[in-house]
Specification:
- The complex is a heterodimer of chains A (291) and B (425).
- By secondary structure, chain A is mainly alpha-helical.
- In chain A, 43% of the residues lie in helices and 4% in strands.
- Chain A contains 10 helices and 4 strands, in the order H-H-H-H-E-E-H-H-H-H-E-E-H-H.
- Chain B folds into 2 domains: 26-231 and 239-290, Cytochrome Bc1 Complex, Chain C, CATH 1.20.810; 298-408 and 415-425, no CATH class.
- In chain B, helix 3 crosses helix 11 (242-267), helix 12 (297-305) crosses helix 13 (309-324) and helix 12 (297-305) crosses helix 15.
- In chain B, 43% of the residues are buried.
- Classes of the chains: A mainly alpha (291), B mainly alpha (425).
- Bound molecules: protoporphyrin IX containing FE.
- Protoporphyrin IX containing FE (HEM) binds next to helix 3, helix 5, helix 6 and helix 9 of chain B.
Amino acid sequence: MSKILSMRNFRTSTLGAALLLVTAYASPSFAAGEAVEIPRQEWTFSGMTGYFDKAQLRRGYQVYQNVCAVCHGMRQLYYRNLSEPGGPEFSDARVKDIASQAQVTDGPDDNGEMFTRSGTPADKFVLPYPNEKAAAAAMGGAVPPDLSLMAKARAPAHAHAWYTEPYFWMVDIVTGYQEGGADYLYALLTGYADEPPAGIDVLPGLYYNEAFPGHQIAMPSPLADGFITYEDGTEETVANYSKDVTAFMMWAAEPKLEERKKMGLTVMIYLGIFAILMYLSKRALWRKVPH
Amino acid sequence: MAHQSTYEPKTAFTRWMDSRLPVIRMAYDNLLDFPTPRNLNYMWTFGGILAFCLFVQIVTGIVLAMHYAADTSVAFDSIEHLMRNVNYGWLIRYTHAVGASMFFFAVYLHIFRGLYYGSYKPPREILWILGVLIFLAMMATAFMGYSLVWGQMSFWAVTVITNLFSSLDSVVSGLGTGIVQWIWGGFAVNDATLNRLFSLHYLLPFVIAGLVGLHIWALHVTGNNNPTGVPLRDPKTEALPFHPYFTAKDGFAIAVFGLIFAYFVFYMPNYLGHADNYVEANPLQTPPHIVPEWYFLPFYAILRAIPSKLGGVIAMFGAIVVLFFIPWLDTARERSTRYRPIYKYFFWLLVVTCLALGYLGAKPPEGGYLVAGRIFTAYYFIHFLIVMPVIGIIETPKSRPQSIADSILGGGNSSQPAVAAAEKR
Ligand code: HEM
């Protein structure tokens, strides 16, 4: 056990990162590295008219709350966010109910004592562990990272040949591709294999995962078909759970996405008209003078 | 080309002002009436665009600072709080973050415009040097601003870059380490470091604004260069007042630039940033790749191309310092690259070199990437130190219009061998 423990500690330590650096330096010239090509998914929130599917966010919350929240917190979120526009838009009553099921530490009261009370919509999400040390101790050294910004905190590397890379950047810019994080999360959650491919030794306490860099992750496969009961008739598969909880994480990371994209369209149209007017006045002025 | 003031105060108040503090006259002469060559192309709109960028950064920055807390324990969360709980906080923050990239995009085009048309050549040396100073101050500002986010990339970029000074240890033992610890205000990047970075990040934009003032002052003493590089002779036929002709043209350019700006702010606000910066700084965990923002990549590539740490630092700063000397390194008689049949190719080679260095700066310095990085780094310096002086001497310029008026009116008789034109100058 102590061996596993120290192994896990090692993974998250600076030394581990240094090892990563060394292996990266030693890889052959012009190799695109060990980057796994992460397949792109269809998301309602992609593109210029992107929006969140409320039903999907609600299912995603259900998955998060029932599975992931056991290990992962979302410290940037308040319960009230769950009823705000552009999110899952649960009813106020439902959010009150959700919040009240959480036990919040508050205080000090008039006697100087800390006390627990049930949560309200104005409270932040209650975290599974009081601090990282507690999480590491409970998880045998690996800290489950906070998920509030996870969908923006990961970006899959392109695995293209170097001379085609600029082309793919241009395509991404023109198509407005911003869903790399979500694509990665989906690939991660659906990337567990019952058996690692032949020849790969998975270290004790780690699990094989297709999408995770290095393929060995300390998180056991969190999902299984039929694990959670959906009320809206959506099929209860790992793929659907993963997709829904990923959409939920995207919303958690970018709760103003809908507002942003809607406003963007107005701004772009306004600026477009302004540019045309400026061009016409410039032309009218300059037509009279040789230049 | 410092032009005669044509301002005439028309009311009692403006006459009273004019004999006491002629600011209205100054604004009129510089912003409205200034004679500007008619033949400027759209590459000359980037000056106005840059002023717009500075304005946007200062306005959004001041609002950001109202919500930002320069304390390592809450800095990261204070920005998230702004993004989530403050009305339009996300708009302010994304505009500022994307704005920094747009600012550099514009400044790079502005600099290459100057290089192509020889805008650094006499009498515009000071104007050019002020520009390089602005560029330097912008880099310092952006570097410090990026650190304020206090994400993983912020923290490690500060650690790596400030640590560069420790290379001075190989000159005087202990000197480098001493400087680094002085910069940090401790033995590692810490709260004291963050606070000084914030203070300076707030200060430097106003230093830039001051430098911009001097830059425009110098511009209005020498007047604009133009695509032919031929000096303005007759303002009546060759120039137009800045307003309304160039305010309209610059306004159009700013609107188009604004469209690109808005596209990034509203649809790809994080594309130009780094995902790791959405992970809060953790001094115990080094990210696998420490990569600076895109606009620093060419310099980062130069830093890593040199095998010795001190050498790399010298090369990186040298890459900027060399820009100060360009007015004296370029020996050509002709300003504009348009009329330089040999140099033309080298100019575009320099552009390719800078793009390639930018690409390589994002790659691990190994194998083919490292070799390519060294070749392009070498050419970067060769271009300024050898190509510019030598080509200027051996090249025979193509014939070019004798005056701006000629170039505007076109026609076969307008061309003269450059030698003859140069004699007339
Ligand atoms: C020359 C103009 C400026 C440049 C190039 C610049 C650049 C930057 C950059 C690159 C960042 C990090 C952006 C991010 O990833 O979030 C930043 C952040 C910041 N800047 Fe500036 N800035 C400028 C002017 C200002 C001014 C005038 C102020 C205040 C008066 C200011 C206040 C801030 C604050 C508080 C942050 C941290 C919040 C954040 O990251 O969004 N900046 N700046």
